[in-house]
Every structure is written in C-alpha cells, then in structure tokens.
Amino acid sequence: MTTTAKPKTAAAAASAKPAPKANTATKQDVFSFPAAEVPAAYREFAEKGIEQSKEAYEQFKTAAEEAKVLMEETLEKTHDNVVEFNSKAIEVAQENTDAALAHAKDVFAVKSFAEAIELQSGFIKNQINALQDQTKLFQEMTTKFNEESVAPYKAMVSKTVETFKLK
Length: 167
Prior knowledge:
The protein is mostly helical.
C-alpha cells in the first residue's frame, strides 16, 4: 500500500488544494448592459439639441462681451459727466461766494438805512435770478447725463432681446 505524504503546514496544505474557479461569466453579466441601438430620430434630436445649445452659448458669450464693453464705456462717460457736474458746482459756489463777499463789502460802505435796504433788495433779486439760472443749468446737465448713461443700456437690452427671440 502506498501512502501520500500530507503537508505539515497549513500554508502547504492550502497550496496543495486546487483553487476554485472564479465564475467570471456571472460577474460580467451583472455589470454589462445589453447592446441597444439608439433610434435615429432620438440621435438626431440629441444632436440638434447640442447644436442649439452651442449656438445659444455663443450668442450669450457675444452678448456678455458686448455688455462688458458697453459697461466700461458708459462708466468712463459717467465719470466724465460727474467730473463736469462737480466742476460746474464748484464754479457756481465760487460765483455765489464772490457775490456774497462783494455784497458784504458794499453793505459796510452804506451811509444810510434806506441805501442799505435798497442794496439788500437788489442783492436778493440778483441772487434769486442767479439761483433760477443755476437750477435750470443743473437740471439740463442732469437730464443730459442721464440720457447719455441710459441710452446705451436701452439699446443693448433691445439688441439682446432681438438676438434671443425665438425663431
């Protein structure tokens, strides 16, 4: 009778046993999808949607770039208008101050109360006329500045609406 020698260690015993076969066919079936053909109508619809999305993106990108340029130009113009307005305000304040100082000098040179009343009433009349002229000037400047600032935005909004209208 012949006897087979048995391995003495557990590692030797494990290597002596044949390895079980992995069931790879089952694992592949679980994670694989059956090949399905996409109908041509769906493929065309998807391709058309992608193309329209690209076109819309390009239009949006162009509109955004134009809006950026418009904003920069309008901000520069607004800055110039604010500087002009402030310069005019300083000029008007200086004129009013000069008129008040000249009036004060004239008041100290008055010889009678009647002359002072006449001088004061003339000064007030001149200042009211000057105030009316200055108010009109500032209203005109403000209107002009607002139109210059708003008009480009109106044009851009109209252009953008026309660009994105449904065709």
